[in-house]
Amino acid sequence: MLKIQDVHLAYGPICAVRKASIEVEAGEVVAIVGGNGAGKSTLLKGIAGLMPVSSGQILFEQEDVTRLPPHRRVARGIALSPEGRQVFPDQSVYDNLTLGAYFRRLSNDALEAEVEEQFKLFPRLRERRNQMAVTLSGGEQQMLAIARALMGKPRLLLLDEPSLGLAPKIIQEIFDIIVSLRRSGITILLVEQMANMALAIADRAYVLETGNVTLSGTGQQLLHDPKVRAAYLGVS
Ligand code: ATP
Questions:
Q1: CATH number (domain holding residue 20)
Q2: Low-confidence winner among 21-35, 95-109, 148-162 (lowest mean pLDDT)
Q3: pLDDT in the model for residue 192
Q4: Residues 82-115: pLDDT tens digits?
Q5: Strands (DSSP E) found in the chain
Q6: Does ligand 1 lie within 6 Å of residue 36's CB atom?
Q7: Is 38 in the pocket of ligand 1 (CB under 6 A)?
Q8: Predicted TM-score (pTM) of this structure
Q9: Residue 84 pLDDT
Q10: Which domain holds residue 220?
Q11: Whose CA is nearest to atom 16 of ligand 1?
C-alpha cells in the first residue's frame, strides 16, 4: 500500500531522515520506534506532504505521491493524526471533527452520521461534544486528534506518538482503539516512543536511529531483539 524508497528529509542543512525505505502492506499496523530526535515525526510529515522530500520516492497504492500537496494526499486516503495536542484549541469537539471531513463535502446528514461513528468509537468525546478542545484532558485531546483524522475516511492512518504524556490507563485505551481500527480494515503506520506497547501490537516494525532505518522485522522479532530491548525497552 505504501512504499517509501530512499527518502531523505532535511530542515535546511539539518538532515533528519536519511535514505529511509519502509513498506506498509494493506491491513497492517506497522510501528516505527526510536529515541528522541530519531526522525520519526519528520518521516510522517514527509508522508503526509507537510514537508518536502529532498530525494527518494513515496508510492501510495502504486502511485507516486512524492510531490503531491497535503490535501491531495488526504483525498487519496492518507490522514495524519499529529503528535500531541494539535487539535484546534478554540473550536468545539464537534467543530474539530467536522473540519476533519472538510474536503469530503458531505451532506449534513452524512456528516452527522460520520460524527456519530466517531462518538461510538470515542464515547468520551460524545459527552464533550460542545466543549472547546483546549479544555479537554490530554487523553481526550489525543482521542480527538485521532477521531478528526478518521473523519477524512483514511485507508492509511499515520499516528504520531499517540501515547505522549498520557497516563497508562489512557494509553491502553488508545492502543485498544488502534487494534480495533486495524480490525475494521484501516492500515496504520504508528510512530511511538513506547516501544514495548507499539511492538506488541505491530505486525511489523522499523527502528529509526538518527535518521537511519537500522533494524526491521515483525513486531515480535523486534520485541525480543537484544539490541532493541537494551536501547528502547530498558532491559538488558
Ligand atoms: P521525538 O520523539 O523526540 O519527537 P522524532 O524521532 O519524532 O523525535 P523528529 O521530530 O522527526 O524526531 O526530529 C528529527 C530531527 O530533526 C531532530 O534532530 C530535530 O531536532 C530536527 N528537527 C525537527 N523539527 C525541526 C525543525 N522545525 N527545524 C529544524 N530541525 C528540526
A1: 3.40.50.300
A2: 95-109
A3: 92
A4: 876 689 999 999 999 999 998 888 899 999 999 9
A5: 2-11, 14-24, 29-33, 55-60, 63-64, 78-81, 156-160, 187-192, 204-209, 212-218
A6: yes
A7: yes
A8: 0.93
A9: 63
A10: 2-233
A11: 16
